[in-house]
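REQUEST ID: PR-0412
SUBMITTED BY: lab tech R.K.
PRIORITY: routine
TASK: structure prediction, single protein chain
INPUT:
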Amino acid sequence: ANVVPALGLSTDRDVLLNEQYVMGLSLARKNPQDRLKDMIRIAESCDGTSPSASCRPIVPNSKSAAILEEAKLFCPDSDLECTPNKLKRYRIPFADTRTEANRVFFPQYLNMNHTIFGGELMRWMEVHAVQCGRMFTANKEVRSLGMYNVEFSDAVNIQDWVTLNAHVVYVHRTTLEVEVEIHVERADKKIVTNKAAFVIANFDEAGQLMEVPNGLDLKGASPEWLARYADSR
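STATUS: complete
OUTPUT:
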C-alpha cells in the first residue's frame, strides 16, 4: 500500500492515505457490525468525482459472507455501494461479468520442480483480467495497473487442464477490479490453485482515463458476492 510515515508526507494524496491507514487500524478494533457501519459511512462520503483510489479506505480484509449476511438485517444491499457505482446508468449482475478461458502449458514453462512457473501463471491471469475488463467496458483500451491478494494454493502440473475464471468485483469511476482464479481438474473435481485481483483502468484512444460506463448490480447478490465487493472496497 502507498502508505508512508507522517514525517514523510508531502502531498494531499499521501495525507489522505495516511488518514485512511489510521482509520483502518481503528476499524479493525471494532466488532463486525460497527465496522461495516463505519465503512458504509466512509463510502457514502465519497462524492464520485475524486480519483478512484481516494474513494476506497484501507481496511483489513476481515469480512466474510456470514458477516455480510448478518449485516443485511440492518443494512440494505444498496447501502454497501460506493458512490461511483450508484451513479452508473447500467448495472450488471456479478455472475454476468464472468469470462472463462482454457489453457495448456508446454515443457518450456516448467521450473526445476517440474511444475509451471508462477510467473507464467501470473502473466496469463493478467491477460485474462484485461480481457474481462474489455468485455465489461466494451472498450479495448483498458490496461492493468496493479494486482493484490495473490494466492498460490497449489502447483499446476504440465498435464493439468487449466481453466481461468474472471469476474468484476468492484467498479470505481475510471477503474474496476477483477478477480481471477485458476482451476484445474483432478480426480473428477475442480480445485483452485491460484487467485489474484487486478486493478484495470479504462482509457480512451488518446490515452486519457475515462469513466467506466457500467456498474455492478448488488440487488439479489449472494452473500459471497457481497463479501467480495466489500473486501475490494
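NOTES: The beta strands are 90-93, 99-103, 142-152, 162-171, 175-186, 189-202, 214-217.
REVIEWED BY: pending
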